[in-house]
Every structure is written in C-alpha cells, then in structure tokens.
Amino acid sequence: MLVPCGALDALVLAAPTEAVEVLGRALGSAVGRRAGARLQDPKSASMEAFVTQLAGEGAVAGVGVLSIERWGRALVVVIEKSPLAGMLLAPFVAAAIEAALGRRVWSILLGRDEGVARVLVASERAVERVKQAMASGTPWGEALAGLHGDKA
User: Fold this and answer.
1) Are 120 and 128 in contact (CB under 8 A)?
2) Cα–Cα distance between 78 and 103 in angstroms, integer?
3) Average pLDDT over residues 96-114
4) Which of 120, 69, 131, 127 lies closest to 97, judged by CA?
5) Average pLDDT, stretch 130-147?
6) Burial class (CB in 10 A: 0-12, 13-18, 19+), 103
7) Would you say the pTM of this structure is higher than 0.85?
8) What is the CATH number of domain 5-145?
C-alpha cells in the first residue's frame, strides 16, 4: 500500500507518542529484517557492509539516504532527504538495527535541519544522558562530546 507523505505526516502529528513509536518501529523492523537477511551473519559483518545493506533497504523503502557518522565512540545515523516526520526516525533507526542484529539498542533524534536528520544509536544510559543534556539547552554536538570517556 502506498501512502502519501502528507497523509502520513498528518497522522503522525495527530497520533499519541506511543502510536508514533509503534509505527516507526514497525517500519524500521521491516527494513532491518531485509537488511539482515542479505548478510550471511549480520553480527560479524563489517560496519561498512552492514550500513550498505541497511542504506539500500532504507532507500528501497523510500526512507531516504542513510549513512553513519562516528563521534568518538558514539554512532550517529544520518538520514538525508527523508519524507518521514522527524519523530518517526529515532524509533525507525533503533528497530532497523535491532531487527538486523537481534540486539536491543536505544536512539534519540539529535536534530533535523536542511533535509538532514541525525539519530544517536547507543546504550540506554548514553541516550538518557544526551536527552537530559539537550533538554537543558546543551547543543547535541556538545552532548555527544560529553559521552567521551564514559562507559555508556
């Protein structure tokens, strides 16, 4: 079923946060399962091979152009030109990685501007620290720098 992005955005904006999370995770799980299936052993695949498959499946699904950035030990998934509402992206990314690797991860939308969104993928503790820092007005880049040296 094809759904116009405008209709999906309207639905997401009107829906409760929990429903948005469920939708984002459902979309991500489907992409992650397909990406994981394309790799013989996703857990032992190189980061480059893993991201290539995830990006390919994301592109086919119409999610946008996926890539990664490393900020020290922090992994940031970059999504360019995505038609999805920003609040769908963090649960989408977490679920895609979880479905491909079979391992729980947490995520937070760091920001979205000029057609580029960034999603931190990390431990629950690290995501919570970044969330708290950003809520207190710390720019996301500084919040990520604050994770360095932490075992989070």
Assistant:
1) no
2) 20
3) 95
4) 120
5) 94
6) exposed
7) yes
8) 3.30.1380
The tokens for 35 are 């990406």
Judged on CB neighbours under 10 Å (0-12, 13-18, 19+), 2 is exposed
| Two tokens, residue 152 | 């989070």
147/28: higher pLDDT:
28
Place of tokens 């990664």: 68
Residue 8 burial class via C-beta count within 10 angstroms: exposed 0-12, middle 13-18, buried 19 and up: middle
The pLDDT tens digits for 13-47 are: 899 999 999 999 999 999 999 999 999 899 999 99
| Residue 54, token pair as written in the block | 């995830």
Tokens of 139: 């720019």
Q: Tokens 């829906």 sit at which residue?
A: 15
